[in-house]
Amino acid sequence: MNVASGLPQLLVVGLGNLPFPQTRHSIGHLIIDALAARLHVHMTTDRTMGGVTGHSKVTLGETAVSLILLKPKPLMNITGPSVAGALRKSVKASDAMIIIHDSLSHKPKALSPKIGGSANGHNGVRSIISALGGETHFHRFRIGIGRGPGDAAEYVLSKLPEEEKFYWSGDGIGLDLVCKELERIARKQLESQGLP
Question: How far is CA 127 from CA 83, 122, 169, 186, in A?
Answer without folding.
Answer: 9, 9, 27, 25
